[in-house]
Amino acid sequence: xxxxxxxxxxxDVGKTLAAAxxxxxxxxxxxxxxxxxxxxxxxxxxxxxxxxxxxxxFHPERYFLKTPMSPHAAATIDDVxxxxxxxxxxxxxxxxxxxxxxxxxxxxxxHHTIADLIQPDDKVILVSSGYLGSINHTLLSVELLKSRGLxxxxxxxxxxxxxGTIEIIETMTGVPTIGHLEKxxxxxxxxxxxxxxxxxxxxxxIK
Length: 207
Hints:
The protein is of the alpha/beta class. It has a single domain, classed as Rossmann fold. The chain contains six helices and nine strands. A seven-stranded parallel β-sheet has the order 4-2-6-1-7-8-9, with helices on both faces. A two-stranded parallel ribbon has the order 3-5.
């Protein structure tokens, strides 16, 4: 079974939305290794709310930090140190969707970043968006993965309105496009189910 690692070009680009869609499409398990903030409604809570199938399991975070900051800073406030060897993946016989925090170089501690959580066999899905500077951030993210010997299996674009953005990224990276999500006025399980159905062929090709 595949492990699909969902990362973003920055924070607030739609990783949790993407994770919910992919979890539903593949009826996979979901795991976010660490959560900063969101004590009242975590990303796991949101994915659990949105995914409706009888197969997916939602595994608890290894680190749940109180403050919505970079994990290394939030951990300092909580007087804990994030240890890489403590971020052991949950055991499952199902596909596993793993959601990162922020972008690839978000620090976990003084030595490690989110990128260090990615394993060589992971199917890395990059979530991009359409803000000013997003092309640069997308290209940098793909280059970072390449420099570590990791392959970006596909890019899922979220709210990219400027014409030509997706095309230039495809041309310069050769990374396939999984899909393009339009702006959603609301996010419901029914909408997630429809998006999951629409993107399933592309995701089946990756897994």
